[in-house]
Amino acid sequence: MIFTQLILAHLLGDFILQPNSWVADKENIKLKSKYLYLHILIHNFLSFIFLWNTELWWVAVVVGISHLVIDASKLYFQNVKTKKRWFFIDQFLHIAVIAGVSFYFNEFNFEFLKDQNLLKIAVAVLFLSTPTSIIIKTLLSSWTPVAEAHNNIQTESLSSAGKYIGILERLLVFTFIMVNHWEGVGFMVAAKSVFRFSDLAQAKQRKLTEYVLIGTLLSFGIAVLTGILIK
User: Fold this and answer.
1) Does 94 share its domain with 161?
2) Deepest of 5, 69, 106, 118, by most Cβ within 10 A of its Cβ?
3) Domain final residue pick, 104, 130, 155
């Protein structure tokens, strides 16, 4: 498949064969950086090599030119605050170009949208993300404990870390159930207990411990029930 070949070329060119020094130089002097053009040449070369078809030379050229335009746009539009956002926009656009070329060769179609099993899994994954986080937060809203400082213990946490940890753990539990590896669910519960409740023991707040325990059990329970329903 052209898509697989071009994705392989993209991963090698954008991540493996692009040193941090090249990235820094491009960000400093933008279009004046020789490494920007060397980076594009590497992408072109890799695309030619992996396609290994002289009749498809124009595909490598299209990918290379689009890569130059996307990278140049990112260099001029990103700043310190939007750098992370532009990284993902940049990668999305590169993959979209590759997908567009593959679609031109009829490698993709939308027949998968008729697959009921796939749609059920998609609904479950979507449900276990933000919707379940909101449901759990709403259920526990009347019990939210007030954080207290005890013996100079570090109580700060990353912004929205709990939400994303919950989403990831539910998706992992769901995956383990779908592939019939229930022992993985037990591993997740054990790992969460070790990392989370050791901190709570230091905090010495019974209400906070109970709050986190209820939230964790709800999170795992909803993921398990969802997995069973889909199975």
Assistant:
1) no
2) 5
3) 104
Q: Is the dihedral of CA 94, 96, 98, 101 positive or negative?
A: negative
Q: Which two tokens stand for residue 103?
A: 């679609």
pTM of the model: 0.78
For the segment 127-185, what is each residue's pLDDT rounded down to a tens digit?
999 999 999 999 988 887 665 554 444 556 666 788 898 999 999 999 999 999 999 99
209 contacts 200 by C-beta, under 8 angstroms: yes
Co-location of 97 and 137 in the same domain: no
Least confident of 30-39, 126-135, 172-181, 189-198: 189-198
